[in-house]
Amino acid sequence: MSSEVRLSANTATLFLAQNEETNQKRPPVDSANHFKVTKRSDLMDSIISTPRLNLTLVTKAERGSPELEWIHELCSNEKATWWSLSGQAKSIEDTEKVLKGHLPANEGQENTYRVAYAVHKVLESMSGSVEGKSQPAKQGEKATEFIGLVTLKSLNAGSLALPEDLTLSVAAATTTLTVELAYLFLPIGWGKGYATESLEAVFESCKRARAFWTPFSKLYIRAIVNERNPASLRVMDKTGMTKRGVYNWTGKAIFLAGEWREQDSLHIFGMHLLE
Length: 275
Description:
Number of helices: 5
Oligomer: single chain
Number of strands: 9
Helix content: 10-25%
Structural class: alpha+beta
Radius of gyration: 19 Å
Strand content: 25-35%
Shape: globular
Mean pLDDT: 83
Distance between the termini: 34 Å
């Protein structure tokens, strides 16, 4: 079963280029020292390394790219997507549709914050792994194997509205950015602590990248886990997420974890990363 957490319409599921050209007059600049336009995603760590993992920032996943290949392998895996509201991808188009909600937004969406990291485990042997496809290593580097994806994104109209006692107060929400956490792992990555290790690494990266969250100086991460998803509940405890309470959700029937549901008990977690 996938250890996935999502803050959306229900339960455990799964940058933008700035400074659009204007006609505003600019001061003359030396051609050798011209201004550089920075993408928001450039402010995040492009690669995060832990003792067992390499996490790579994903800003796009085009047809034919290794990024899309990795993520489609994940999204089309029935077990990995067991707790995903998006369900199992039946085609590459399904995967692309899911990614539109998690990868950097288009220009002009300055109020949207999205971060996605592809997780690879470092293989002991340079010859690769018998469990899945390994990434060929460059000289001086170790071979790796894709095992999962971790995403963060700011709340939007489709995010689950929670009562104030389970989230930030109205007053605090005006000065604090809240982002939702989601993750998926292939079965080869289950039960080894990779989810916990990945989340802790991403959290630390978020703390280092204060400029990414501008104009917000405060950052709060929330996570919603289905009561029947014990693996993700354990991950929340291990990463230091604070349990805020349980939300009893009822609504239009959705297909999740092999059955149609009209109600669920959702465990709500939260953590201040920047205060």
